[in-house]
Amino acid sequence: MDGVPQEIVRGPRRKLAILETIRSSEDPIGEGKRILYLAVQRGRFVKPCPCTPGAIGCGYFIINLNLQCPLDCTYCILQHYLAEPWLTVFVNLEDLWRELDVFLEKHRRRVLRIGTGELGDSLALDHFTGLSEDLISYFREKANVCFELKTKTAAIVNLPAVRRTDPIVVSWSLNARTIADEEERGAPPVTERLEAARAVVKKGYRLGFHFDPLVRFPGWEREYDQVVRKLFHVIPASSIAWISLGALRFPPALKKIIQARFPATKIIYEEFILGRDGKLRYFRPLRLELIRSVAGMVKKWGGEEIPLYLCMEGEEVWRDGLGWNPEGKRAVETTLSPRAWHQDKS
Amino acid sequence: MRSIFEPKQLALRELDLEDTRFRISEFFSSDRLALSIKKIDLIHPLLVTRRAGRFVLVSGWKRVSVCLKLGISRAPALILDEPDDLKAFLFVFYENLAGREFSLLEKAEIISRLLALGMVRSRIMKDILPHLQIPPTAFYLENFLSLSKLGFSAKKAISGKNLPFPIARLLAEFQAEDMEEIIPLLLPLGQNKQKDILEDLLEISRRKTIPPRQILGAPGIQAVLHSSKWPPVQKSERIRLALRKERFPLLSAWEEGFQAALRELGWPKGISLEPTPYFESDDIEASFRFKDEKEFRARLRKLLEISSRPEFQKIFARPRRTSKVRKKS
User: Fold this and answer.
1) Do A284 and B248 touch (CB under 8 A)?
2) Which residues, 6+ apart, have CB-to-CB distance to A103 below 8 Å?
3) Staple A313 to which of A212, A230, A240, A317, CB 3.0 to 4.6 Å?
């Protein structure tokens, strides 16, 4: 990082002063993306994914190892969700390993899904931090866990080769070309993401794909079909651990942020209603149409066996969108569980 | 900050009233001040400063306006010896801050002037916004700046109807060319409905990439606007509903379908039937009150009778084709 100004932040007052300076800029969120803050995680690293009230969860756990993201997607919830705008990477890894040891032991009877890509992109800063290699080394020998790195980037250079039975999944967030090009600033094109995914399969990994957020725009059906077809053209279906679908949703406060930061976007002007969880969501038949269509494309191009799940949707949308009404998050968890891989290993 | 003042009886004709660099108030009511001046004369001196050999009014626009209307030609004044415009303007700000609340537009003007006079954004946020009871963030700063750029008719509407910040902020997102159509629509309505109209117009305009005046120029809306059948409040309300339908075509179709089914069934007044908000689930809630067993049984009989009719199924029917709804809208 030659030539990059560096500072040791001594005390909360200095931190507050930096925060005030950023907040007084014309675009505090954009400004925060230019600052990398290396910090000590004082709280817990591992937390259950909060999901959303009224939705069927999937029993996922998140590791808060990095906060915020250098990419700048229009719809990103982090613009609203996190109080501090800078990119934070926690450096006290010894504490993380200790906490994970205790956590995994406590849940030894379950097969857990856990990942780092919830409050930031798992790989976007990996060229600075090299954390992916440490995490994979830790998790690959664990019997009761499936670890997921989730990204929109093509930053795979640090990922070591693994055995196919290792419980590691590298996931990509994919979208229709128009959305990727116009609404996911800083992220590589979908084709580049898929090339990175293909390279990762060769390293031995299983893959996940997240079509989240699914966005309605003129031509969405054609473009989602193109990307799903391309996905299965590049990636063998047998390498895919799961695919998730989630229609665009956001808290009302984020809408104002999006309007201010991305005045040219149109994606927030479809028929959004205030959902039971207080988030703006597409009116139910519209999001059902999205989910059903894309789920149909996945089945058409990838086959019926790909595990599909919905993110932050209630019982009725699961039933009408995927034709499946899971009885709670344990049912979803079991469906996505990589027990079969462990059986392969034995 | 220097504070050298020289008291003087100033002939008002010596003031360069074209020079408005320190002015923050455009709209005010002057009746009470006029009465006060008539009864006890002008007590508080004007604050003026010299620029290019002329006197420029720093503080006291309302007083000068009233004096001129009353035919008063001289007024007490303090001459501020301050060549720096920003420092002089801060006199206006702090002098007024001590004595009164600023209106929304005055706050916008203060922020705009400070920026034009060279105060940087970060200092305005830190040192000025908190005094104006404005959250010290870039969002508010930029929004207040956009209020200061509004045209006369929009400012007059904001001032005259005492519109709150959320509505004024929305109004500031429209172009001057749209104001002529929009402002008359807003004025007869309450604030919630004003907000609905502005939000729907903006969002339809952004989704379709057409100017709001083109949306309001649609034949259906023009027919309402130029009709002599309805008073202004009813015209505004009809246009508000038309915009809502265009903004939420499928939701509107579902709501209308549900209401039409109730009407067709002649749904009894004493029994409420409500879908979940925005039809987020398939559940429909029926509820009624009763005083005794007889009334309870009567309600149940009525419900049973209605539910046995074939048209009861229409309660559960929903328009499915979104594209058709879009085309209609």
Assistant:
1) no
2) A46, A61
3) A317
Give the residue among A212, A179, A206, A203 at the shortest CA–CA distance from A49.
Answer: A212
Return the exposure string of A81-102: e unless at least 16 CB atoms fall within 10 Å of the residue's CB, then b: ebebbbbbbbeeeeebeebbee
Inspect the interface and report whether the beta carbons of A283 and B137 lie closer than 8 Å: no
Phi and psi angles of residue A120, each rounded to the nearest 5 degrees, phi first:
175, 165
Q: Does B250 touch chain A (CB under 8 A)?
A: yes
DSSP structural state of residue B288: E
Backbone dihedral region for residue B72 (phi beyond 0: left; psi -120 to 50: alpha; all else: beta): beta
CA angle B34, B36, B41 (to 5 degrees): 95
B279: left (phi over 0), alpha (psi -120 to 50) or beta: left
Contact between A314 and A332 under an 8 Å Cβ cutoff? The reply is: no
User: Roughly how many angstroms between the first and final C-alpha of chain A, as a whole number?
Assistant: 45
Instruction: Look up the ipTM and state it.
Output: 0.90
CA gyration radius for chain A? Answer: 20
Chain A positions touching B139 (Cβ under 8 A) are 256, 260
Q: For residues A94 and A148, what is the distance between their CA atoms, to the nearest angstrom? A: 20
Sheet of strand A145-151: strand arrangement: A46-48, A60-63, A112-115, A145-151, A168-173, A206-214, A240-247, A308-310
Enter the DSSP assignment of A205: -
Does A285 lie at the interface with B, CB-CB under 8 angstroms?
Answer: yes
The three-class DSSP label of residue A328 is coil
Q: Among candidates B70, B73, B72, B75, which has minimal Cα distance to B31?
A: B70
Between the CA atoms of A181, A183, A187 and A190, what dihedral angle is there, to the nearest 10 degrees?
A: -40
DSSP one-letter string for B172-214: TTS-HHHHHHHHHHHTTS-HHHHHHHHHHHHHHHHHHT--HHH
The CA distances from residue A327 to A337, B21, B150, in Å, are 16, 69, 56
- The kind and range of the H/E element at A321 are helix A315-322
Q: Which of B115, B173, B276, B278 to mutate to test the interface with A (most CBs of A within 10 A)?
A: B278
Place of tokens 């419900």: B303
DSSP B258-281: HHHHHHHHT--TTEEEEEPGGG-S
Place of tokens 């729907």: B200
By the 8 A CB rule, do A275 and B280 touch?
A: yes
Q: Are B58 and B23 in contact (CB under 8 A)?
A: no
pLDDT tens, residue order, chain A (346 aa): 778 899 999 989 999 999 988 888 889 999 999 999 999 999 999 999 988 888 888 889 999 999 999 999 999 999 998 889 999 999 999 999 999 999 999 998 888 999 998 899 999 999 999 999 999 999 998 888 999 999 999 999 999 999 988 999 999 999 999 999 999 999 999 999 999 999 999 999 999 999 999 999 999 999 999 999 999 999 999 999 999 999 999 999 999 999 999 999 999 999 999 999 999 999 999 999 999 999 999 999 999 989 999 999 988 899 999 988 887 777 787 778 765 554 444 3
Q: How many CB atoms lie within 10 A of CB A35?
A: 16
Stated as kind and residue range, the H or E segment containing B60 is none
Asked whether the beta carbons of A165 and A341 are under 8 A apart, the reply is yes
Q: Which chain A residue has the Cα nearest residue B252?
A: A271
